[in-house]
């Protein structure tokens, strides 16, 4: 899946990933390959990204929105 995390100032991540865990306003949820289309509001917390080699990266956000469509994930974060 292709993931982009964009803030008002810059793009903080752009690349391929196998798993994305997000802080939704009602709790954590994960996005895997071939996920159904989705638009959701994000709360304060950490975004976890895991690649094919199981390397993990974390990004702290204050909130935002996520759009998932055809294995493309776009996160607009604060």
How would you characterize this protein structure?
- By secondary structure, the chain is mostly beta strands.
- It has a single domain, classed as ATP Synthase, domain 1.
- The chain is built from no helices and 9 strands.
- The strands form 2 sheets. A 5-stranded mixed sheet has the order 2-1-9-8-5, with no helix packed on it. The protein has a 4-stranded antiparallel sheet with strand order 4-3-6-7, with no helix packed on it.
CATH superfamily: F0F1 ATP synthase delta/epsilon subunit, N-terminal
> Biggest sheet, strands in spatial order?
2-1-9-8-5
N- and C-termini, Cα separation: 22 Å
What is the overall shape? Answer: globular
CATH topology: ATP Synthase, domain 1
Number of domains: 1
The percent range for strand residues is over 45%
Number of helical elements: 0
Structural class: mainly beta
Any guess at the CATH architecture?
A: Sandwich
CATH class: Mainly Beta
The total beta strand count reads 9
Query: Biggest sheet, in brief?
Result: 5 strands, mixed
In N-to-C order, the SSE pattern is: EEEEEEEEE
Uncertain runs: none
Mean pLDDT: 95
User: Share of helix among residues?
Assistant: under 10%
Summed up, what is this model?
The chain is an all-beta fold and 78 residues long.
Ordered list of secondary-structure elements with their pairings:
Layout: E1 2-6, E2 11-16, E3 19-24, E4 27-32, E5 38-42, E6 45-50, E7 56-61, E8 64-69, E9 72-77
Parallel strand pairs: 1-9
Antiparallel strand pairs: 1-2, 3-4, 3-6, 5-8, 6-7, 8-9
